[in-house]
Amino acid sequence: MLLNISKDIPSNLPMMIRPPRLLRSLVLLGSLALVGAKGSAATDQKFTTPPSVSQEAITVVQLLEQAHYNRDAVGTDYSEVIPDYMSDLDGQHLFFLNSDKTKFVNEYAKNVYQNVRFLGNIDPAYDIFYTYESRVRARVNWIFDELKKNIDLSTNETYRIDRTKSEWPSDLSSADDLWRKRLKYELIAEMLSAKDDKAKSATAPTTGTIPAPKPSATKQLETAPTASAAASPSTSVSAAKPAAVAATTPPQSPLEKAKETIRKRYERMLKNMAEIDQNDLSELYLGAIARLYDPHTDYFSAETYQDFAIQMKLQLVGIGALLGLEDDNCVVKEIVPGGPADLGHQLKPNDKIIAVAQPGQEPVEVIGMKLRKIVDMIRGHKGTKVHLIVQPADSPDSSVRRDIVITRDVVKLNAQRARAAVFQLPDGKGATEPIGVITLPAFYGPADDGDTDGERISASHDVARLLDDLKQQKIRGLVLDLRHNGGGYLTEAIDLAGLFIPRGPVVQVKNYNGEIQVDNDDNPSVAYAGPMAVLVDRFSASASEIVTGALQNYGRAVIVGDSSTHGKGTVQQVVELKQINPLLAHASEPAGAVKFTIQKYYLPSGTSTQLKGVIPDIVLPSIDDYIPGIGEADLPHALVWDQIPSSMFDGHPLAANVVQPLREASLERQKKLEEFAYLRKNVDWFKVREQQKLISVNLAEREKQKAQDEAFRKEMKQERNEIAKSDFTFKPFYLGTPPPPKIKAPKSDDEDPTADDELDDSDTYLKADVHLREAIRIVGDAIALGQNRKLWVSNHPPLTVAVSARGR
């Protein structure tokens, strides 16, 4: 069946700009691990390609070879699918052998295209998995045997902790040697972690609070047990048993405790492997095929596509709780403010969900169940009820159960919506001037769910509303913070850029045939015409780069941040497979979808952001510049950089006589201010640790390094807290009523203690955010620069819009 792409793909589907790496396992009522992070189990299950998956596989390949921008570069050579799929299963290259790779490549690589394209046959995915499962099962049994032996942690050996680019072991002997080092590495990590826990316990309060048991719950009880409860017969009997056991059982050594923890870890790995199903494997295999074309093309199963839609719309129908798995228990990690669970005041962080029931049906126990299945049971249609049987975290009796009924409703994920604040920048003369900051985490779009009663939100609309609020505060300048914004809807990027420029081109897109289309902002009015900066980092991608590059081309903003943005210069479209395959359209079960690249985009000047990203006018020291693998150039199968002719637009980049004094003033502060010395220390420390590819598996050496690292982190924490004392005061602005504080489970003992007080009291802005502080100062410099009429462009200061184009 050949697909008529121009006819069969709906023309109204949104074009997407997506993050550099999609979190395919995103679940907003919980989080799932990728299959590659799971383990194995002794299972006799055998898989074959079902008819529905065959149809999806055929459709995926036909769609990509007819509609993908990079189709000619791939053709029918699918040989890389086999090693890529193996790496998806075994990301650290620990379980397979190199001989496995040779065997599978020889057996399957030549015929992958023909099998999938014409037969819809993905059986190699299952055959490779069987070997993986066998290797994992054998290795876990080997680990169990090794844990019974004496393990020497005083040798001068090292272990490479990142093996993603390493070869698989050549044979079983080299695999055993690798795993001996790996096991030592894990044991030492557990022993050092346990040592931290013991130190924290020694300094914990002895009255008033009782630390919750590890490793399951982390919530602390409000009060200690009462005297009457302690004197009750049942309590006395149950409390006496542990004391008797403690008197007769010798305490375990730190190494034995670590061994027990490691054993439980791999027991869970075996159990998790048993839950890997056919859908998991088909999604990995078809995803490996899709990513041959470029790193932003992917296949989504029906479930993953649902999660993707939720991420883009910032809302779902459910109860409003973030779930996780701990030792086979479904645990509430966070309550979403304003959601049904929050408004009901019954479900709390660290509560364990024991069973789930639908109205009129028997409860289904969820202990040991896959998180995906639990989430599906809890989600449902708006207005319906779900019954949860919960073990409360704040009950000292683990046998207590509570029956909670929650009515499902639309949950707005406001944490990802735009937010704003007015910061007071000291002017050096005892006064301050107000500088607005708008933080935009993503370019989200309106939900199309038929709900006409609720608020229909979008990134550009939200930013426009926040600009009105900030202008009422008479801000003198603006910072648009696009750090960690991985993209979103292309149309939202165009509309948002249009808030700051008069009518004109925002982005150019080129399709497979070389045809170029110019996407314009057609609204001549401007929502904000004053001086501004755009703050970016290496994680600012796609739509963020469109907006940043356009404002830079127009000389509308000074760009501040890391040495470059991510470098994603491609446009994606998402198509549900049932929309182009009649057989899937008439099937009872939901079908998957494909996100694929259809165009490359270019700035108004004709320059591509692909690979190179947008280069800021003012670069600040940043750890991001030394993190490997986060730029587009580091991703496999990334498209090449090129450029096209410039479009006709009324603007030009900032003149050198404007940028240079701003840059020099910033560099002078970077030399003098203590906060930049603090930042450089962190960068230098990170560079040293990042270059340390091999980690010692000598306990004494690791203890020494850990002590050094902890001393450094403690020093940096003290410096950060000192710097935070000079943070600019600010007033936050929210979309609607101020949200209540997030209801989170307390931090577990093994989390970084230096991160305890990173957020300010508003739970919104980081303390001692050096990059944001400097961006605000740079805007202040730009305001001062505007006093020099020699630098004016026509009838307006630099970084502002002409008077005739203002007002919206």
Structural class: alpha+beta
Radius of gyration, in Å, reads 28 Å
So what's the overall shape? globular
Helical stretch count? 23
In total, the number of strands is 27
Weakly predicted, low-confidence segments? 1-42, 201-246, 448-453, 748-756
Q: Give the percentage of residues in beta strands.
A: 15-25%
Could you describe the largest sheet, including whether it forms a barrel?
7 strands, antiparallel
Helix content: 25-40%
The pLDDT mean sits at: 83
Kindly describe this structure.
This protein is 38% helix and 16% strand. By secondary structure, the chain is of the alpha+beta class. Strands 1, 5, 17, 18, 19, 22 and 23 form a seven-stranded antiparallel β-sheet that branches. The longest helix has 31 residues, at 172-202. The radius of gyration is 28 Å and the shape is globular. The two termini are 51 Å apart. Mean pLDDT is 83; it is low at 1-42, 201-246, 448-453 and 748-756.
Would you summarize the structure shown here?
This protein is an alpha+beta fold and 808 residues long.
Which helices and strands, and how do they pair?
Elements (H helix, E strand, L loop, with lengths): L4 H4 L6 E3 L8 E2 L2 E2 L19 H17 L3 H4 L6 H9 L8 H11 L3 H8 L3 H25 L10 E3 L11 H31 L24 H5 L1 H16 L5 H21 L3 H13 L7 E3 L1 H12 L1 E4 L2 E6 L2 E7 L4 H5 L7 E6 L6 E2 L5 H8 L6 E7 L10 E6 L1 E4 L6 E8 L5 E8 L19 H14 L4 E5 L6 E2 H8 L6 E7 L5 E6 L10 E5 L6 H11 L4 E4 L8 E7 L5 H4 L7 E10 L15 E2 L36 H17 L1 H18 L2 E3 L2 H26 L5 E4 L9 E2 L25 H16 L23
Parallel strand pairs: 15-16, 16-20, 20-21, 21-24
Antiparallel strand pairs: 1-17, 1-22, 2-3, 4-25, 5-23, 6-13, 7-8, 8-9, 8-27, 9-10, 9-11, 11-12, 14-15, 14-26, 18-19, 18-23, 22-23
Helix pairs in contact: 2-6, 2-12, 4-7, 4-12, 7-11, 8-11, 16-17, 17-18, 20-21, 20-23, 21-22
